[in-house]
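Quick start: load a record and inspect it. Here is Gamma-glutamylcyclotransferase family protein:
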Amino acid sequence: MRIFVYGSLRRKQGNSHWMTNAQLLGQHSVDDYQLYSLGHYPGAVPGKGTVHGEVYRVDAATMSELDELRTKAGEYARHLIQTPYGSAWMYVYQRPVDGLTLIESGDWLDKDRY
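Running the structure step on this input writes:
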């Protein structure tokens, strides 16, 4: 299976250790989403924008661990998207974004500019 990651799971980010057994397939950008800062990690929600990240191939065990990390308490839900590497899962933030900082570039690596 494949997963599109756009925040703390990306290379050299705070939770990248969760991707140790994953195979990086390449960069990708997803249209019709906006990226918001939740503090130490971001949340992508449907909207007018583009979110930038990376696509990985992961095994079932890694996907299960990521689901536990991201979907507990209903903070995120997995959505299937299309990428040049085939369909991939993306974690979409499920809570209101009112009052959160929009990362206009759509790239979590730019978070310090906002």
